[in-house]
Specification:
Layout (H helix, E strand, L loop, with lengths): L1 H29 L3 H12 L4 H30 L1
Length: 80
């Protein structure tokens, strides 16, 4: 049960991290001025700027991968 819950958490972290990173890049390259960049980041990403949102997204991806690896190790040891 805990292995499945850990797997779901890992996938959610990875998915939300990827979404946050992609949106950060979208707003970073899709806005004309720095003011529009900061406004979009504050409004849609709840970050001071798009760089901060991209950093947070990458950290979520790394956390999801780390938890996923731990879940795989736990699953392999539970089967033995």
């Amino acid at each position: 049960m805990f292995v499945k819950l850990g797997s779901v958490i890992a996938w959610l972290l990875f998915g939300f991290g990827a979404l946050r990173t992609l949106l950060g890049f979208f707003f970073a390259f899709g806005t004309d001025t720095m003011e529009a960049n900061e406004f979009a980041a504050r409004r849609y990403l709840a970050s001071a700027n798009t760089g901060e949102a991209i950093d947070e997204g990458i950290m979520l991806i790394v956390a999801g991968v780390a938890i996923g690896l731990i879940v795989q190790i736990a699953n392999n040891t539970a089967e033995k």
